[in-house]
Request: fold
Amino acid sequence: MVNQQFTFAVHILTALAFAEETMDSQHLAASVNTNPVVIRRLLLGLRRAHLVETYTGKHGGTKLSKRPAQISLLEVYDAVQPRPVIAINERKALKQCRVSCNMREIMSGVAAGAEDAVRQHLRGITLQQLLRKVRRAA
Amino acid sequence: MVNQQFTFAVHILTALAFAEETMDSQHLAASVNTNPVVIRRLLLGLRRAHLVETYTGKHGGTKLSKRPAQISLLEVYDAVQPRPVIAINERKALKQCRVSCNMREIMSGVAAGAEDAVRQHLRGITLQQLLRKVRRAA
DNA sequence: CTAAGTGTAACGAACACAATTACAGATTAG
DNA sequence: CTAATCTGTAATTGTGTTCGTTACACTTAG
Reply:
């Protein structure tokens, strides 16, 4: 199974931006087509990152805590803490092999660069831009 | 468990570049610290991508089919066909929700951009560069 | 008080990945 | 020719990840 948390999180935030009012996890779950608990688990991370505010009790729910133009997808990415883009081999090296002994550090550099490339890309996209696409669409 | 095929593949190719002669899956497996069959499965993809040549029979094994300077990590990445960097939500949308109906296309764009960013990064790294790092190291 | 929310733990099912076993086929040495 | 040593590949298993689901305590509005 592929990790869809980032996609789910972006969907949630876009829905909140579009609604312009608080939504409960039931409705958010319907939009994403998943379970309310899955939504609430994601909201935990988004709340920690100060992207949303949640309210308990009757008429509770969630709303954005910043304007869509102030939220970049990089913040969302960091909030959900996805697995690294490139996984490095963590097992121990074969001592008598020079390649084996150096691969971990070498691949760490490659992986860090890849991670950075993704982050730079996401940094340039705001929730506002996605919202506009929804509004422009049919 | 994280998909390490790309890392394994880079390791294999670096080892072959370093050895400058054919190696069998037994030795490659020892360097990566895994099973020979895992190596042979990966070699299948690398062979399809014309990065290595394999020989069956006694004294068989694998060697690079290009010079290290001619092999970029992007070719390796494509050869192993890893999962996409960002997984999009494939389940069907909620018809009465405009956000839900447009998220798939919107996220496809975001995911494609992220994928492209990673590919650009990998395109700039050659096996020769990694090989030099191994040689420079202690 | 009651209804309608969230927060969170616990468990299960489906899936992905790697490890492993097994064996057929290819090639070389003798 | 035969034995030894490789690869190619299918099948199975073990383990971890992810998501879905149920359950229930807690919170708040009315």
Remarks:
- The first helix of chain B runs from residue 5 to 19.
- The first strand of chain B starts at residue 52 and ends at 55.
- Chain B touches chain A through 51 residues (CB under 8 Å).
